[in-house]
Structure formats: C-alpha cells, structure tokens
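COURSE: Structural Biology Practicum
ASSIGNMENT: Worksheet 4, Part C
STUDENT ID: 0417
INSTRUCTIONS: Below are two proteins. For each, the amino acid sequence is given first, followed by its structure token string. Answer the questions at the end about the second protein only.

PROTEIN I
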Amino acid sequence: MSIINRKSFISYLFPVSIIFLGIVINEYVLTYLFSNDGILEFRTKAIIFLFQGFLILFGFIILVSEILRSKVFSIILMVKHDSRKIIIYSGWFLFIYTSSNHIYSNVINYIASNMAIRESFYFSNDVTLKGTHFGGNNFKKSFSKNRGILRSFGLDQTIYFFNKFKNFSPSVSNFFLEYQLVQVLYDLSSRPNSFKQETVLYIPKTLKTYWDMSCDSHMSPFIAPAISNIAMIEGLPFITSKTCYTHTLEYGYAEYYSLNKKATFISMKNEELCIKALNEGFNRVIEITQDSSNSIITINHECIL
C-alpha cells in the first residue's frame, strides 16, 4: 500500500470508527452490559445520549473535512513518534476535565443550596428542627433533593420550584419573627463604631424568637453579637437549657463557668440593666423584645453614672 493510500485509509478509518462507536455505545447496549436490574436513571440516559451525539457529530465533521482528516493523520504520526507530547496533551485533558467537573459540581451545589434556603422558610417553625447540627436535617434533605433534581435535568420540577419561590417574602413565612429580629440586628450593625463601643445588647430569655433559633440552645448567644458586632449582657444560656448538640462546655462556656459567670435573669428592668452595663464599662443598653402585637422592637436604655 502506497503512503498516499495509507494516509487516506487511516484518515477515513478514524472518523468512521468514531461514528460507529457513537452508534454502538447506546443506552440499550450499556444497560445490557452494566445494569443488573436493566434500569438506567434519566440522568444516566441523558449523559449517554449527549456523549453519543458528540461522538457522531465529531466523527462526521472530521469525515467531511479534508483538512481535519489531514490533522488527525498528523496527530496519529506524532503520537507514534513522540509519546511525550501525548502525555502532555493527556495531562491537559485531565486538568480541563477535572476543572470542568469541579465547576459543574459547585454550580449545582450553589443553586441547590439557594433552593433549599428558599424552601426552608416554609418548614415547620419547631425548635427541634432548627439549627446547624441535628436540627439541620430538614435543610440537608431539601438540599439533597434539589441537587438530585438538577443533576437529573428535572426541568419541569425546577421551573415549578422557581415559579413558586422566586417572589417569596420571608415576612410572610413561618419564620417572619426571626426575619424581623435579624433585620434589627443588621440595622444595628450599620451603627458607627463609636456607638458600638459604649453600647451592649440585651435580649430577655422571654423572647423565644431569639433563644429558640436553634435546637442547640448554646448556639443562640453567638447570633446577635456576630451580626450586630455589639456585645451582649446576660447573653449566656441557662446551664440547664436543653440542647441537641449536648456539648454544653464547648464554645468557651467552660471558661465562663470557671469565672462564675452564668445566666441569672429571665428578664431585667431598666435599673438592673444599667447597673450591669455600667459595671461592664458601657453606658447604653439596647433591649430587643416584643411589643403587644408580638412585633420585634428595640428599647434604648441610656445609663448615666
């Protein structure tokens, strides 16, 4: 066989082989070979179909393009005579594949998390089902469900979800009081540092909206200072408070208790608040509580020496 005929044969054989492979590797063959129960998930079928389409289209483009056939033949000769380049190209392919897969997973996880957050506003407002530990199981289940929908290309379910939740408002959800409270804390966070340095927060234990934000009763005290960047007084939970986390001496609580600091008041009056604040070096107390209509409000207590 002459060099020209050999080149022509190889350059045609490659795209024809690719097209043939794209036809043969179909869901029925793969189901027979690899599925014990004879069933493939919709996501798997979609991936197989897309891969088939890519192979057939790729092979057809090479088949009809003389320039591409010539390039393919050159690459085959290069691989035959220079294995180092194929290792480099394989490394680049592996890098691109893993990067693309990582990006795909992160995008899917981001969207699934967003969907779960929106959906969680309509969960039951039960303290045993709230929090980042055991109380977060409902959120985890919602996240896993939504991630499964996205990965299986459940377009109808995804569209239905976004139509249902795209214009949702936390103010009319099952957690509207928690939403009000967090908004108050965000508003306080915008105050100047000079204001924060002489101010403390006080949230009475009677405000269940705050103290029942998590099934872990020892986590709630960190929420207000973390968002507002303002210190708290009487911010420790009662030692006997039930917690789903059980580690009541973690988060630094053991050190507080060793200094004989513990929760002592369910609620405090203006005079009691000011005495405690002044002793700690502050001259203003912002009390976060509820009014007669159960709305979250703030009360300023200016403390004078």
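PROTEIN II
(use this one for the questions)
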Amino acid sequence: MTVPFTTQSLQDALTAKLALNFGTEPGEATDQEMLKACALVLRDVMALRGVQTAKETKKEQKKQVHYLSLEFLMGRSLMKNAYNLGVLPELKEALGNLGFKSGDLFELEPDAGLGNGETPIFPIQIFRVKEGVSYNPGDPNYDLKQLALECATKRMYPDVIFYENIVKITGSFKAPMGCRSFLQGWIDPKTGKDVEDGRMNLGVVTVNIPRIALESHGDKDRFWKIFDERLELCHRALLCRHERLMGTLSDAAPILWQYGALARLKKGETIDKLLVGGYSTISLGYAGLYECVKYMTGHSHTEKEGTPFAMAVMQRMNDKCAEWKAASDIDFSLYGTPLESTTYKFAKCLQKRFGLVPGITDRNYITNSYHVHVTEQIDAFTKLKFESDFQKLSPGGAISYVEVPNMQDNLEAVIKVMQFIYENIMYAELNTKSDYCQVCGYDGEIQIVPEDGKLVWECPKCHNRDQNKLNVARRTCGYIGTQFWNQGRTAEIKDRVLHL
C-alpha cells in the first residue's frame, strides 16, 4: 500500500489479508472474516502513518506534546478509526466492490461501551439535542441521536436533554450538574456575555412537606403558618452553608479555584465573589408533594381537586427564594430533591411521629419532589404533560421519568416519546431495566421478592439471590444507581407501574 490510500489499494490490501490470515478470498469470506480483515488493514494504515509522522517530526524538528488519555466506554471503533484516518469513503467503496455492505460489517463489531452485561453509572453521559443539529431526520447529526437512543434502550445512558427547552426555563443552555441540578443564566458584568462553564451549586437543604401537612391536621391556615416557619429554618441553614464558605482561600482547592475547573483566582484570593451575584446558586429542596396534597385535600395532585393546592405550595417556595435573593444577592433556587436514600429516612421519621396514616405514611418511602406517585396508573404522555408544569416551578433542578418495558426492539416508540418530551417538558428520561445474572447469564429484569420480612433481589431464571453475582441498575431519582438500595427505596422500585 502507498500513502495516500486509494479505493484500489485498500481493496487489494483487504484481499491480501483474507488470503494470508484466513486462507480465503472475497467471494468466499464470511462477514466476520472481512470485519477482521478491515481491522488488520486499518492497523497497517496507522502503522505506516506513524512511521511517516515520526520521520517528518524528526526532519522538521517539530515540538511534541504528549497527551495521556484513558478512554472509557469508547464504543465501536472500526468506523471511527477509518474516519479519523481519512479513509472511510475509500474503505466503504472498496468493501462494496468486494461484495460487502459496510454498514452491516460495522454493526457486527461488539460495542465496548455496553460492557459485559453491567450498566456503568459513571461518568454520566448526556446527549444534547438541538433543532438544525440532531433533532430532525435531515439534521447533520440525526444519526448520532438515533445511536444515542438505541444505546439508552440497552444501558439507560446517555441521558437526552433538549437545547431549546433548557433555554426556555433557565434563560440559557447549560447541561445539568449530575442528575437534575440546573443553573440559571448569568451574564458576566465585565464582558456582557452569558457564562455556561465553571459555575457551581453550593448544596441543598430539603423541606419535608408531608410532615408539615400532618402537623397541621389538615387545617390549611395552620399549614401555611408552619410551612413559612420551616422555610425560614431552611433559609437559615442555607445561610450557614454560605457563611461557612465565605473567606475560603482559593489555595484550599487549586484545581477548582485557580486552574480553571470552576474559576481562575489568584493564590491567596478568597472565593467570596463567586458566592454572590448569581455566579453560583444554593438550593431549597423539597420532597413529598404528592403525600402533602393527598393529606390536605384527599386527592392526588394529578386530580383537579388537588392540583391547585400543589401549585400553590410550589409557588410559595419560589416566592421565598426570590425574596431571599433580593435581600442578600445570593442566588437561591428551588430544587426537586432526588431523595436517593433519604426517602427511607423521611418515611421512617414520619411513621415514628405520626404512625401509619393510610396513603401517606404507610409505605417505607415518600415521593420524589413533584413526581406522580409511583403506584398511580397514568400513561407516559399524560404524566409528562402534567409534570411539565411543575418543572417550570422548579428551575434549580428537576427531572421526570416514565417507566417502560424493554424497548431495545421498539426504537420507533422511544423516538415518539422523546419527541413528546421535546415538545412539552424541560428534562425527562426513560426508565428501563438493565440487569444481568452472573450465575446463569440471564439478561432481563431481576425481580424483587420478600425474604424473612425484607425485600431482596432474585434472578427469575436460576433464583440466584447473591447480590455479589447480580448486576442491577435502576434510575432511582435521576441518577442511575446499581447494586441495591435500602429497604425504602427498594420498596419504591418494586411498586412502580409501567407508563408505556
């Protein structure tokens, strides 16, 4: 082969690899043999390019920059390598001339990013969708969106967020920090430009709304009085967090404060200016809106009798955040608390103080933020449409999700749901099952079953209950969690109904 590589030279190289490595010729070779021949040819291309680059570097005495990178979940590499080497069109044409479909061959390569039956939960992968870029079939990166959705049906990641929806609610585009926390838009007064990178949230203090409802004994006047008192308590707690950070020197964490992860401050400079004026946010969280409304009105917040009270609770918290911000120049924001393990703690505290109140405290969990209760029979589209109004009142962070069965063979339905999300709500995801039994190789939904008064996980095929030999992944609150949860969260997962 010569450099540059042509369709004919690649065709000849593929033919030679088949003969020398597999003892066959193009007309008799299998798809797997041709796939491996392609890999061997591209390895030769890389080697020759490497020799050529080294020779030119030495001759021209060019500077060298060494970059060490750990590639994680890199996915299929054959087509990407051909593209990066600048020979993808020629390779596709060569394969066609030899009687092979390049698209079919590329699909045969194992997808390293999917692992061996286990869903990796970090790093979080987020795919941004924007009109004119990847949303519509004619957009240049539409094929990448299709691949992202296909991957999500198998491993739940990547999360998909929609550019225009984020801008509508938060003022400008920025990816969520982790599972659901969003920053509001912020204009740098020095440059007049919106700043998306390097900003941060300083943490959250969460109000347990069902407790306030139970303390009020259903008296709405008393509810609002107690609610305001608890919100002020949260305010004081948030101020304690803020004041503790004031005066911190950038030297405490140079990577964060001096080298650009969050800012580029001087040595010995405090981080104080980053804590005010909207550069960072600090969050009021809330949990159990459903239980609160159910107790106060006798209805779910999805019912017309309960919705107005639910919206009033949300508006009160937003008004308080605005009031605190105006008084202090600290950017308070309302945040839908994920309640990863706290759901169990809150529920047990309520049971200890108020006993088992039917429909309110009789489960070992309370509902995340504004979500529809996990046992409520509601279809995906109605749920998303309903919860979209609450996301608008939770600008500091929110995520909705719908429970779905295995969608690997129904990408068309996934696209339809995602289109509805794009048209109606800021941030929402699909909850599918991504489990694997290491004992028998079962690749399906691991079940939750009772055992001696507790809930445990069991493979439905071989009945393995050894948690060390079960890979289980669930979106518990926004984040995807693996390898089991406390009894409260496990009960919540077991109670979930399908929405599609």
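ANSWER KEY EXCERPT:
Q1: The CA atoms of residues 314 and 393 lie 6 Å apart.
Q2: DSSP finds 16 helices and 13 strands in the chain.
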